[in-house]
Design a protein that fits this description.
globular, 5-stranded parallel β-sheet, 6-stranded mixed β-sheet, glycoprotein, 16 strands, 678 residues, alpha/beta, Fucosyltransferase
């Protein structure tokens, strides 16, 4: 079936796919799709509510008149205050670290404040005891394993990131050691001087790819703002990964549902709208002089975590917020105003920030004006995802043992390693509709870019060859008469043939279905290749449905890491499973292309950095930072760009639009489309 006709049929029947997928286990794509749909519904609902409210207020004004103040001037109505601000005074992060050295100094200062006399003694014996209790082979072996690849040069070490991470590790250890029970600490609104926290939760129904990408984004934010990141056990991540921070733990009490159900505990976690209300009230002074005089005190005073009020450049007091959410109930990412200087200045006064995410929002951290200088200094090559994944997302020994087994049995002696990941977002329905076109394009991509030889022959020829081979076995061939004489001939020619250099290619497939494996096995394993090369096909699982749980995530991470150990990657667009593989491997992948309007079988990705899918906006939404408000982030930050057109989510999230992507320094300067060398 022609591809255009095939995709047209797919679009017409997308609703049937959704109905059928309701009978299937949860998928991470459905979780993101639900976030997107709920966000759209919420926006329309908010518009209707606002319209009705405005009409009602107008009626009240016309019928009841207006109230006068004791001075004879009319007191402004609440809705008028918000609209009457002509010169909003932005509360800035004027002293935010602009260099790595300044960031290290800030982390050290926070640690000293938390411990009063610097870091408490973490002796060599304590270190040995901690490592015995928290074994992690991948901590020592991961870098070495990537260096064994023969065609993809490994990631260049980032010494600045290593230094910052070491300082963060001390801060993390210092704060957590003093907390005692996290449950008691949080519920009783306790505080430790200098210690602030982020909770990195994940959205229900998300796979390992979405979980790790969102937590990586949250962790970078935690480092920038000198916060301690804690991860609920319910995410399954602590059961899949090693403890990343020496001498401490990142796990929140397994039984503590106050963190995993923040949206159902409004008394414990302040809403996003309440936080923004504080920001607006603090930024609406018409007296620039008074605002300027009190702005610095606002940041300092806002550290009050007891629920008291404080001045912040406004004639009014606002109530301090001890714990706040970063996302609305219906979204899977921080709200647009999160990426603004004024809002970030106010977040310095919040002791706990709760994230419940499913998306890789890290590119937008580069867009925050106060964050950008230190981010550019910390990651000059902008290989952020590979550096962070390999430094803190360390697979547990249960996972690493499986990865080593696959590597030693199939990868170690291969000259070329090719990883292929295939995802059908609507399960069996998509597979039945798309697998023939997808597999044809994958094979075409392998051949076109010389990753595998072209041995494709018509099926009837294959059948004829099988018949001839069978007849020769049953009845003998013309060569059989000379069989006895061949035994007497010298074997020198055969020995020379066997001693010739042999190229070994290992193809690793990750898919819920076995169809591609069958196709490539038939083409490359069940026949002798004219080139004399050897090709092996490896696939660990083909479960058809996606399931969830610690063991499922362990096996999924095993396959992700095996993909990442490849020299070349072919991925399904929009798949976070594949995105993790390109991130760990620091690889620029090929994406299978089944768009109806194109004839290409695959296209090269723009960067090893993955796509930030369906961002709720690509513009700055910063009402108190007028120098950026309403402008496109990509206009102000040249290395933030749209994701490749092949990743337009016409299958995964209809009408979601293209996401945002971070270009590495090499991607900006290099036109080499076939290089996987950092």
């Amino acid at each position: 079936m022609p591809r255009a006709r095939l995709m047209s049929k797919f679009h017409h029947q997308a609703s049937h796919a959704k109905l059928e997928s309701m009978n299937q286990p949860w998928s991470s794509s459905s979780s993101i799709r639900n976030c997107f749909l709920l966000r759209m519904a919420s926006k329309h609902k908010a518009l209707v509510v606002a319209l009705v409210t405005t009409i009602g207020l107008l009626i009240i004004l016309l019928s009841a008149g207006r109230t006068a103040s004791p001075l004879g001037k009319r007191a402004p109505e609440p809705w008028e205050i918000e609209d009457s601000v002509k010169k909003p005074y932005p509360l800035k992060l004027e002293e935010f670290p602009a260099t790595v050295e300044a960031l290290i100094d800030a982390i050290r200062a926070t640690t000293r404040k938390a411990s009063a006399n610097g870091e408490k003694n973490f002796s060599a014996s304590m270190r040995r005891e901690w490592h015995l209790k928290n074994p992690c082979q991948s901590r020592r072996q991961m870098g070495a394993l990537y260096s064994l690849r023969k065609e993809a040069r490994d990631l260049v070490e980032n010494p600045k990131w290593i230094r910052v991470l070491k300082e963060y590790e001390i801060l993390h250890r210092t704060c957590v050691a003093q907390m005692g029970s996290v449950t008691d600490f949080f519920l009783h609104r306790k505080s430790i001087p200098g210690c602030k926290f982020v909770v990195a939760d994940t959205e229900r129904g998300t796979g390992i790819g979405n979980k790790l990408l969102s937590i990586v984004s949250i962790f970078v934010y935690a480092v920038l703002t000198q916060r301690v990141m804690l991860v609920p056990f319910s995410t399954t991540i602590p059961g899949v990964m090693c403890e990343p921070f020496e001498g401490s733990s990142w796990v929140i009490d397994p039984e503590l549902r106050n963190f995993t159900l923040a949206r159902e505990n409004p008394k414990l976690w302040g809403s996003v709208s309440k936080f923004y209300q504080n920001v607006d009230e603090c930024s609406m002074s018409n007296d620039d002089t008074a605002a300027a005089a009190s702005s610095h005190a606002a940041v300092e005073d806002s550290h009050d975590s007891t629920g008291a009020t404080y001045y912040c450049g406004s004639p009014k007091r606002v109530k301090s917020i001890y714990a706040s959410r970063a996302s609305e109930d219906w979204d899977c990412q921080p709200q647009p105003r999160f990426f603004c200087d004024t809002e970030q200045a106010h977040y310095t006064g919040v002791s706990w920030i709760y994230f419940r995410e499913a998306l890789y929002f890290l590119p937008k951290l580069f867009a925050v004006p106060s964050f950008r200088p230190v981010m550019e200094d910390l990651f000059p090559d902008r290989y952020v995802l590979p550096h962070v994944l390999r430094s803190i997302m360390l697979p547990s020994d249960a996972v690493w043992g499986r990865v080593r087994q696959v590597h030693d049995a199939h990868f170690r002696h291969a000259d070329t390693r090719v990883g292929i990941q295939v995802r059908y977002f609507h399960g069996l329905y998509d597979f039945n509709l798309l697998h023939e076109a997808t597999e044809k394009n994958i094979h075409g991509c392998l051949v076109e870019h010389k990753l595998l030889p072209d041995v494709l022959v018509p099926d009837h020829n294959l059948h004829q060859e099988e018949v001839v081979e069978e007849e020769e076995v049953l009845h003998g061939s013309s060569a059989s008469a000379d069989l006895s004489s061949s035994y007497n001939k010298t074997s020198s020619d055969s020995l020379k043939l066997l001693q010739q250099p042999l190229k070994v290619t290992t193809v690793f497939i990750a898919s819920l279905y076995h169809s591609l494996n069958d196709k490539l096995t038939k083409l490359y394993v069940r026949r002798a290749l004219e080139t004399g090369d050897a090709i092996g096909i490896v696939q660990l699982t083909s479960e058809r449905d996606q399931f969830f749980g610690i063991e499922v995530d362990r096996q999924a991470l095993t396959e992700i890491l095996c993909l990442s150990l490849s020299d070349h990657l072919i991925l399904t667009p929009q798949s976070t499973f594949g995105a993790l593989a390109q991130g760990y491997g620091a690889l620029k992948p090929w994406f299978t292309d089944i768009r109806p309007e194109t004839s290409s079988v695959c296209v090269r990705g723009q960067t090893p950095e993955t796509c930030y899918q369906i961002p709720n906006t690509k513009k700055f939404s910063c009402p108190h930072d007028l120098q950026v408000h309403g402008k496109l982030m990509s206009d102000l930050v040249p290395y933030i760009t749209d994701c490749h057109l092949v990743e337009e989510p016409f299958v995964k999230v209809r009408a979601g639009g293209l996401g945002l992507q971070l270009l590495t320094s090499q991607d900006e300067s290099s036109s080499d489309n076939n290089s996987n060398k950092p």
